[in-house]
Design a protein that fits this description.
Layout (H helix, E strand, L loop, with lengths): L1 H23 L1 H36 L1 H17 L5 H11 L3 H11 L5 H8 L7 H12 L5 H20 L19 H14 L4 H35 L2 H15 L7 H9 L1 H9 L6 H14 L1 H12 L7 H29 L17 H35 L1
Keywords: Membrane, Transmembrane, Transmembrane helix
Pfam families: Gate (PF07670)
Protein name: Sporulation integral membrane protein YlbJ
């Protein structure tokens, strides 16, 4: 009872402090809001919207169920989740945060996975996208395209390791039979695809409209969190709370021989990974290895902003947030350790600044300036895409409400 009252007082006091700070520092609040809005409508919305819509359509057409039957022999023994988890894993890796949580919640609502399986699945299907890692962080912030491979190995391998650990979460003896490897014929997968499509009686037009409606609503929620945490991060800095926390983190960094100058960027990254990655790349009094290790940690931890987005998505189901939060801490530490371990054998050996370097395999043949050009194109035309989709969403909403 006392713990509950203490939590109430803390939450109420924090909200009151933020409200007063916004009134006292209106200019700071406005600038932070604009920064968050620019990130959302210029980068996040146009990059995530297509993946969200396609994932909804694939679920409706039965393709996800087809993939689930095919991948059952792989996903069940490794991660103790149904084969449909492979779809969440692939889409989460391709589109970035918080797509994995969105798809997992959708699968749970469709009752294709159990509560425990959903909690296992969501813990390792939320990634930073390859575009963000290779272009935004490596090229945009560190101005070193070769670091993208280091970040990617640490980030994706780290999340898979988290999934292998989380397979033991909520494990019961009843699962032993279903966890055995078995060969499933293609015919069974095709039958499951056809059955799912037939059972979903919505016409294609309505299915597309529902997909757009659901995707836009989720992205509006994500945009709200991005703006909110941009403001909170900026206010904490001006209230000197960040510097207080930095003094504590600084002592921890000193114990592992990291400079204290990394503490404030690190704390910023705990709240929002984009800002944290940018600030870490700008710290002069530190080695590149130290910057990359901490950046790998915050990429794995995902930041409170993304965690809040995931919590909001999971709140629509019975999936608990606590396992996801624990997994994020694990991912942060595992990614940082992997970065440290592969730095010498991979980066210093093959990608040393004194040597001529090449892009990762999946980006081979693309020049540095061309990749940067794609990123700038997205920033330039992203707002137009966002506005166009929002207008289409308003049209659909009006049509459904008044017809």
């Amino acid at each position: 009872m006392f713990k509950s009252k203490l939590k109430t007082v803390f939450l109420a006091s924090s909200a009151t402090l933020m409200a007063i700070s916004m009134i006292v520092l209106p200019k700071v609040t406005s600038e932070a809001s604009v920064d968050g809005l620019n990130i959302w409508w210029g980068v996040v919305f146009p990059s995530l919207f297509p993946f969200f819509v396609i994932s909804e359509l694939l679920i409706g057409f039965g393709v996800v169920r087809f993939i689930g039957v095919i991948l059952e022999p792989l996903m069940r023994p490794l991660f103790r989740v149904p084969g449909v988890g492979g779809f969440a894993l692939a889409m989460g890796m391709a589109s970035g945060n918080p797509a994995g949580a969105k798809i997992t919640a959708r699968l749970r609502q469709e009752k294709q996975i159990s509560q425990i399986e959903a909690e296992r699945l969501v813990s390792f299907t939320n990634y930073s996208s390859p575009l963000f890692i290779f272009v935004a962080v490596s090229v945009g912030f560190f101005h070193n395209k070769d670091l993208g491979l280091i970040f990617a190995i640490a980030h994706y391998a780290g999340n898979i390791i988290v999934g292998l650990f989380m397979r033991f979460y909520g494990y019961s003896r009843e699962e032993r039979v279903t966890n055995q490897m078995r060969k499933i014929p293609i015919k069974e997968a095709l039958r499951a695809l056809h059955k799912t499509r037939i059972e979903d009686k919505r016409p294609i037009g309505k299915l597309l409209g529902d997909a757009v409606n659901s995707s836009v609503q989720t992205l509006l929620m994500i945009g709200g969190f991005i703006i909110l945490f941009s403001v909170i991060n900026r206010l904490l800095f001006h209230l000197h709370i960040t510097s207080f926390l930095a003094s504590i983190i600084g002592n921890v960094l000193l114990s592992i021989h990291f400079p204290t100058s990394l503490s404030i960027p690190y704390i910023a990254g705990l709240f929002e990974i984009t800002l944290g990655s940018k600030l870490l790349s700008e710290v002069a009094k530190s080695t590149l290895l130290q910057q990359v290790v901490l950046t790998s940690f915050i990429l794995g931890f995902s930041g409170f902003s993304i965690q809040a987005q995931v919590a909001s998505i999971l709140a629509q189901t019975d999936i608990r947030f606590k396992p996801f939060f624990i997994a994020r801490i694990m991912h942060g530490f595992i990614a940082a350790i992997i970065t440290f371990l592969i730095w010498k054998p991979i980066y210093l050996r093959f990608f040393h600044p004194d040597k001529s370097t090449n892009l990762p395999v999946f980006l081979s043949g693309l020049k540095h300036h061309y990749i940067d050009g794609m990123y700038q194109w997205g920033i330039h035309y992203g707002p137009l895409i966002t506005i166009g989709v929002l207008l289409f969403y308003i049209f659909l909403y009006y049509k459904r409400s008044f017809h």
